[in-house]
Design brief:
By secondary structure, the chain is of the alpha/beta class. It has one domain (14-200): P-loop containing nucleotide triphosphate hydrolases (Rossmann fold). Helices cover 38% and strands 20% of the residues. The protein is built from 7 helices and 9 strands, in the order E-H-E-E-E-H-E-E-H-E-H-E-H-H-E-H. The strands form 2 sheets. The chain has a 5-stranded parallel sheet, with helices on both faces. Strands 4-3-6-5 form a 4-stranded mixed sheet. Strand 5 (82-88) and strand 6 form a beta hairpin. Helix 1 packs across helix 7 and helix 5 (139-149) packs antiparallel against helix 6. The radius of gyration is 17 Å and the shape is globular.
């Protein structure tokens, strides 16, 4: 019979580190969830995405994103420095490979914030990753979130909502769904923490190779 990997907790060892992907439509509150987890000092390594889009008011380089020029981003692609990358709404976004691998090697759980396309790509590269889809309470609620950002035109908001409807059809590629309702951010964060705890306690745990 094949040897089945058992949970190292049974031998008094730390649980295997997880690769957790937080995904969902634009404007659903992925950034708010991650920022709240940071405030609560949840012991994850939060990978910072690289992008060539302009920095928005209130954002910090190296914290919200690694803001780079388009030329530098294309250089990162050609040199294989990214685990995953895509062009989203006219701008590049990608995940630096060294940051993820170093964190996993040190035993830390890694959290990635990705669009749906990126999440599916990571699942192909790392089948044992944990994919969490963050959904809005309703599409009307999502429209309100996008309007409050004041970073897109009315036409752009309509476009993002249309994309969000298509992205909802990709749920089958994910392991879990978390509903991020308006003014109930801590509930969404608690659900993600519960998912991580359950994954740590699996009899036959995931082992991420990347």
């Amino acid at each position: 019979m094949p040897v089945v990997d058992r949970n190292p907790l049974l031998d008094g060892l730390p649980a295997y580190p997880l690769l957790i992907v937080i995904s969902g439509p634009s404007g659903v509150g992925k950034d708010s969830i991650l920022n709240r987890m940071r405030e609560l000092e949840v012991p994850f390594h939060f990978v910072v995405t690289a992008t060539d889009r302009p920095m928005r008011e209130g954002e910090r380089n190296g914290y919200d994103y690694h803001f780079v020029t388009t030329e530098r981003f294309r250089e990162m692609i050609s040199q294989g420095e990214l685990i995953e990358w895509a062009r989203v709404y006219g701008h590049y976004k990608g995940i630096p490979a060294f940051e993820v691998r170093n964190a996993l090697a040190s035993g830390r759980d890694v959290v990635l914030r990705l669009d749906v396309q990126g999440a599916v790509t990571v699942r192909r590269l790392a089948p044992d990753s944990v994919l969490i889809f963050v959904a809005p309470g309703s599409m009307d609620e999502l429209r309100t979130r996008l309007e409050r950002r004041r970073t897109e035109s009315s036409a752009e908001i309509d476009r993002r909502l249309s994309v969000a409807q298509r992205e909802m059809e990709a749920l089958e590629a994910f392991d879990y769904i978390v509903i991020n309702r308006a003014d109930r951010l801590d509930e969404a964060v608690a659900q993600i923490q519960a998912i991580v705890m359950a994954e740590k306690l699996r009899v036959h745990p995931r082992r991420v190779t990347l």
